[in-house]
Amino acid sequence: MAIATRPARPGERPQALPRHHAWGAIGKFVRTKPLGAAGAAIIVLMALTAVCADLIAPYDVYEINQQLQFTPPSLAHWLGTDEFGRDVLTRIIYGARIALFIGLVSSFLGATGGAVIGVFSAYLGGKTDLWIQRLMDILLAFPLLVLALAIVTVLGRSIPNLIVAIAIPVIPRTARIVRSSALSAKENVYVEAARAVGSSHLRVMWCHIVPNIMAPFLIILTAQLGSAILTEAALSFLGLGTAEPTPSWGLMLSGGAPMYAEKAPWLAIFPGLAISLAVFGFNLFGDSLRDALDPKLRHRT
User: Fold this and answer.
1) pLDDT band at 7, cuts 50/70/90?
2) φ and ψ at 136, to 5 degrees?
3) What percent of the chain has pLDDT over 90?
4) Distance CA 22, CA 173 (A)
5) What is the largest CA-CA distance in the chain?
6) What mean pLDDT do residues 12-36 have?
7) Residue 294 falls within a domain, yes or no?
8) What long-range pairs does 140-148 form, CB within 8 A, spacing at least 24?
């Protein structure tokens, strides 16, 4: 049943949104997108684990005790110990910090860089747009992991280089999506009106085009977070990501896990579950966010 609303009178201030509007939107999201809410819960739990790692970790993450090598899961060590006697649960908890930090920073840098390129490419058009898109085609020709692997091989093994290597493959994917939204926003009447009154190109892009590409930007940013975490784990597993004794999930899989798979299977099972759960949570939340922010999909539900 539609609720009739009284149009605002000339000079009348629009009524402010109620204070519970944000909570109402969250409640509606939980009701209509339960899988997305589950993904958000996983993300929040992972973030809290990373922030409170010093408080909730049962042991020192760098503590080595050779007498506790390959201790199976028990009350003292819930997820067992590794080949150096280090507590696996503690390293998984601290590994959430590395995964979130590298995933968030690399995804944000890559998505922001791609959004800037996409907006400029769509707004300038002509040969500039043509050359930029051909460059994006070249980058898109390489799978994300292969391109990241090549970049980190050239730059060297370090966390800043790892962030750059993961961020660069995100740029062309974001640029393509943002460009399509910017092309549509560019044809709106208010953009022509802003040009007619003498607004600068930067002002037109910032005030009239950027707000229209925020929804796809947030969607691609959220979607790429899971891929960034998975790519970081893969590079660390291949020996091109973080280095020991950094508690990284991918590094935990590349240590004694393959060598002692039969003797201590928990070395591979629990870090693998952590990676899978994190990627699963971000993918669930990203898909639901896309459905919630996309007007075409929103009208279908």
Assistant:
1) very low
2) -65, -35
3) 35
4) 31
5) 80
6) 66
7) yes
8) 140/172, 140/173, 140/176, 142/169, 144/169, 144/170, 144/227, 144/231, 145/231, 145/234, 145/235, 148/231, 148/235
Task: Kindly indicate the confidence band of residue 164, based on its pLDDT and cuts at 50, 70 and 90.
Answer: very high
CA neighbor of 226 nearest in space, from 160, 274, 180: 274
Q: How many CB atoms lie within 10 A of CB 46?
A: 21
246: which DSSP letter? S
pTM, two decimals, is: 0.82
The residue count for the chain: 301
Task: Answer yes or no: is 70 within a domain.
Answer: no
d(C-alpha 125, C-alpha 173), whole Å: 19
| Any domain includes 14 | no
Name residues whose C-beta falls within 8 Å of residue 151's C-beta, 6 or more positions apart in sequence.
161, 164, 165, 168
Q: Looking at residue 78, what is its pLDDT?
A: 93
Task: Look at residue 51 and give its three-state secondary structure.
Answer: helix
- Residue range(s) defining the domain that contains residue 147: 82-300
* Number of C-beta neighbours around residue 148 at 10 A: 28
Q: Residue 157 maps to which CATH number? A: 1.10.3720.10
Cα dihedral 60, 65, 68, 73, rounded to 10, equals: 20
Smallest CA-to-CA distance from 285 within 24, 38, 30, 27 is with: 38
Going by C-beta distance under 8 Å and a sequence separation of 6 or more, which residues neighbour residue 58?
78, 87, 89, 90
Structural domain count, the chain:
1
Q: Is residue 194 part of a domain?
A: yes
Can you list the alpha helix ranges (DSSP code H) found in the chain?
21-32, 34-51, 53-56, 88-124, 126-140, 144-155, 159-186, 189-196, 201-204, 214-237, 249-254, 266-293, 295-300
The pLDDT assigned to 294 comes to 64
